[in-house]
Amino acid sequence: MRGENLNLMFGTETIYKDANFIINENDKVGLVGVNGAGKTTLFKVIMKDQELDSGKIIISKTKRIGYLPQEIVLENKNITVFEYLMNARPIEKLETELKKLYEEVAVCDEKDQKRIFKKIDKTQSLLEYYDVYNAENILFEIIEDMKIDTSLLDMKLNDLSGGQKSKIAFAHLLYSNPEILLLDEPTNHLDYSTRDYIINYLKKYRGTILVISHDVEFLDQITNKIMYLNKIDHEIKVYSGNYTTYLKKSQKEKIIKERHIEQEKKEYDKLKDVVLKYSNSSGKRKKMAQSREKALAKLEKNMIKKDKEYKRVKLNIKPKRLGSKIPLKVNNISFGYDENKLLFKNLSFLINNNERFLIVGENGVGKSTLIKLLVKELKALEGNIWYGNKTDIAYYAQEQELLDVNKTILENVDNNNYGSKEIRTILGSFLFHGDEVFKKVSVLSPGEKARIALCKVMLQQGNLLLLDEPTNHLDPDTQKIIGENFNNYEGSIIMVSHNPSFVESVGVDRMLILPSGKITNYSKDLLEYYYNINKDR
Q1: Residues near 508 by beta carbon (within 8 Å), at least 6 away in sequence
Q2: H or E element that contains 230
Q3: CB 210 within 8 Å of CB 182
Q4: Sequential DSSP letters for 313-352
Q5: Residue range 300-321: average pLDDT?
Q6: Which alpha helices (DSSP H) does 191-302 contain, by range?
Q7: Any idea which architecture 328-532 has in CATH?
Q8: Which band of pLDDT confidence, cut at 50, 70 and 90, is reported for residue 401?
Q9: Residue 154 dihedral angles phi and psi, to the nearest 5°
Q10: Per residue in 162-188, pLDDT tens?
Q11: Domains of the chain: which residue ranges?
Q12: Which end of the chain has fewer beta carbons closer than 10 Å to its terminal beta carbon, N or C?
């Protein structure tokens, strides 16, 4: 795979500028760079879902590409999980086509036989590629190795939780047997046992892998190259070695770059002094000033750009009003998508004013479902949910359904309670600076969309915030900054999160453990236990 002179702009925002890269056959490459550098966009270009302004990516036409996006959207949601998995290899369609071709060749004219036999050879080659006689066994091996509960196989795609959708989409991708894998944050929803299986699978994978991930350990274990997308100069650079090796190399480059910038600054100041001193002189001094002025202009044009550093502003958003002493009570609720298989039964708890309350449990136990019950998107089969008369809810949905992708960042967070300058300052606290606020949401990465959605939730000024997996698409540095924003917020917070460092930065008081319904004081060890529980299974 090769990228040649890639150029792409979204409005006034430059994504790539004469960017080039080369990836060899069977390379396993990690894509890194800050949110908005163009990592997910590069995948869309490779998949031909995004056109470049100029330049091209060269890939053999025979290569089959498989793509796992961050935001999982499963088509035809009314089919079962097993039907969806089976459809990853079009074996039934190819067998039907082959049968039809043999029927055609039996009755066709001699002049058409050669053409039809070519089609037969091509179809048979595809069936061999998909290992037609062993395909079902391969699928069941993937199901077993990924610890997919067989009870899920008969469920409709529409009834799966976010974590279950991600796991099923990953299994579908692996079974489809592509020659190039594009993986965008593949470990976001994986438990540890599945994660270990995926790491071993990718290590042995005979094909090219491009993966975007903020999971450093994951990148270190599977990559032999790192592709860095630079948001400052909009270029792409490929480093040999894993992520840790890349960090060492890039740190050395940063030190060298800073020295060059310092030397250029000294040279610039020296030339400028001469120009200012002798520009109004005559004779040799004037000629010297003119010569230095040319050198100054040339130096200024080619000076190395310093990385942008934005001043951190403490967020100062408060709820519209003081919340109730008890904002919310859950009284003996029971719920399940199937009445014969409940996710929880007789679940009860209450939230105190200004409390940080964490919901934990394994994938599929109903964490996101509980949040949807609390915001009245779903209704309990039994029991009730009581809200204090001063409770104002603001909700962050895991799949960011609340954003208008046809509007800009600024338009999405527009709020009558704040002036334009205040909104721009608040967006700066969520790492959107300068003209970035005029970008359309449709062109943003999932990480950028997550930041807007979180900003939008806070601007609602609710006194009870409900956050469903708020860090899924955020890199570690961004997680810390966003966590501090919520830590400083004067209101109650109920959240689902699998991220211990983010949870700690927000500051959690109590935990609800599903499906048992047990309430306990916050314990980092307990949180890590529940997210490592599958590791030894």
Answers
A1: 356, 357, 358, 522
A2: none
A3: yes
A4: -------SSPPPSS-EEEEEEEE-SBTTB-SEEEEEEEE-
A5: 72
A6: 192-204, 216-222, 243-278, 283-302
A7: 3-Layer(aba) Sandwich (3.40)
A8: low
A9: -95, -5
A10: 778 888 999 999 999 999 999 998 887
A11: 328-532
A12: C
